[in-house]
């Protein structure tokens, strides 16, 4: 009989598991703390659980996070892990330290089916959805690696190293809906990672029905990958737009905000030289989003081989930004982090060989 991996369960599912074992449901809370709060995988170390139950658990269950193939540490402190998700496959997780927060960028799928033209994950095609244990396992592993401070587990949450999670790694999180929502529940659970809804962000290319479902199931902060101000251009570079065009997407954003933990949506906009980055595009964008309370995050395009695109020139990004700012919007231009380890947005392709050859550029530590 194969063992069930308890990292696949959020607290309600774990409680159900205990009931089916003939045990009390409150055990779920204890288990969540051991697994996620303290990072324990061995039932024998769970000292507040009596030996017979520990043995019973070990007979039917395991706590198995995904393995790490490679850990890379950039000169600027950014870390990237290549997570083992089966033969010849990897997904990537990136940790970005900043003065006031530490953000973990988590993947949701191996590849992506949505084929945005400027995205290297999209160019790979779709392989499969990640399991809950593989999604939450990225947070589990990152915590394990970053847990260098003595007494780290006792620190107040505000001082924990990972304070924010963004579902902006490989894949479209809302296309792996159930597993992503279960993983979000674990991130928010006080017995596990205890992150606030405001500090967990789902980024979507605009799967409208799933945005409505997320609003009801687990409203966290929302980022929407807009990238174009009109349907003709968006149809071309974000093909899911043909199914859910801009008017529907804007309406879904407004519905989402009724329950969101923040009172704005973040629109992500990748800056592609000569494609979507003129002052005219910026003005059109203002019209498109005018009914949605929002902020903008401009992302200079991160090149990858044979992409066919180039990064917008800095003065064009500045002009574009100024149009939005003059209209009263908050606009951030994303800094590229972890450039030396290909950790930037859209560079997460998960090919082991490519990355390991570049050992001269970064500190490379094989941990698997
Ligand atoms: N599938 C989701 C989340 C993952 S991508 C989504 O599309 O929103 C996270 C962000 O990186 C998205 O806004 C995506 O469009 C952007 N991105 C993809 N490829 C990029 C590239 N090469 N350069 C810059 N940003 C990119
Ligand atoms: Fe998929 Fe997002 Fe890349 Fe589009 S940008 S292909 S939705 S991962």
Describe this structure as you would to a colleague.
With 368 residues, the chain is an alpha/beta fold. Helices cover 33% and strands 19% of the residues. The strands form three sheets. It has an eleven-stranded mixed beta sheet. It has a two-stranded parallel sheet with strand order 1-2. The chain has a two-stranded antiparallel ribbon with strand order 7-8. Helix 1 crosses helix 2, helix 5 runs parallel beside helix 6 and helix 10 packs parallel to helix 11. The site of S-adenosyl-L-homocysteine has 16 residues, from strand 10 and strand 12. The site of S-adenosyl-L-homocysteine (SAH) has 16 residues, from strand 10 and strand 12.
Distance between the ends: 27 Å
Q: Provide mean pLDDT, rounded.
A: 90
The secondary structure category is alpha/beta
Number of helices: 12
Most strands sheet: 11 strands, mixed
Fraction in helix: 25-40%
The ligands found in this model are:
S-adenosyl-L-homocysteine, iron/sulfur cluster
Name the helix and strand elements from N-terminus to C-terminus, one letter apiece. Answer: EHHHEEEEEEHEHEHEHEHHEHEHEHE
Q: What is the molecular shape?
A: elongated
The Cα radius of gyration reads: 21 Å
Strand content: 15-25%
**Lateral strand order in the biggest sheet:** 14-13-12-11-10-9-6-5-4-3-15
Number of strands: 15
Low-pLDDT stretches? 350-368
């Amino acid at each position: 009989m194969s063992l069930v991996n308890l990292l696949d369960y959020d607290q309600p599912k774990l409680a159900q598991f205990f009931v089916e074992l003939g045990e009390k449901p409150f055990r779920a809370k204890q288990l969540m703390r051991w697994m996620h709060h303290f990072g324990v995988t061995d039932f024998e170390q769970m000292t507040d659980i009596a030996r017979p139950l520990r043995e019973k658990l070990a007979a039917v269950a395991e706590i198995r996070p995904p393995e790490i193939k490679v850990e890379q540490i950039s000169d600027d402190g950014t870390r990237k892990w290549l997570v083992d998700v089966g033969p010849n496959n990897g997904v990537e997780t990136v940790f970005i330290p900043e003065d006031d927060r530490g953000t973990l960028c988590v993947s949701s799928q191996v590849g992506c089916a949505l084929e945005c033209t400027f995205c290297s994950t999209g160019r790979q095609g779709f392989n499969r959805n990640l399991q809950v244990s593989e999604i939450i396992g990225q947070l589990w592993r990152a915590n394990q690696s970053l847990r260098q401070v003595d007494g780290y587990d006792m620190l107040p949450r505000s001082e924990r190293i990972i304070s924010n999670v963004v579902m902006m790694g490989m894949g479209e999180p809302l296309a792996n809906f159930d597993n992503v929502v279960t993983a979000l529940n674990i991130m928010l659970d006080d017995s596990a990672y205890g992150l606030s809804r405001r500090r967990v962000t789902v980024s979507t290319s605009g799967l409208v029905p799933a945005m409505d479902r997320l609003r009801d199931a687990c409203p966290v902060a929302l980022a929407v990958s807009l990238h174009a101000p009109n349907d003709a251009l968006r149809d071309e570079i974000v093909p899911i737009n043909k199914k859910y065009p801009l008017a529907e997407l804007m309406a879904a954003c407004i519905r989402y905000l009724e329950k969101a933990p923040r009172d704005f949506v973040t629109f992500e906009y990748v800056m592609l030289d000569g494609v979507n980055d003129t002052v005219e595009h910026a003005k059109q964008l203002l019209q498109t989003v005018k009914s949605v309370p929002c902020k903008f995050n401009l992302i200079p395009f991160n090149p990858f081989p044979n992409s066919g695109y180039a990064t917008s020139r800095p003065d064009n990004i500045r002009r574009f930004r100024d149009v939005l700012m003059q209209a009263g919007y908050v606009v951030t231009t994303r800094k590229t982090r972890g450039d030396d380890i290909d950790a930037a947005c859209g560079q997460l392709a998960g090919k082991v060989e490519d990355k390991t050859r570049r050992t001269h550029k970064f500190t490379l530590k094989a941990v698997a």
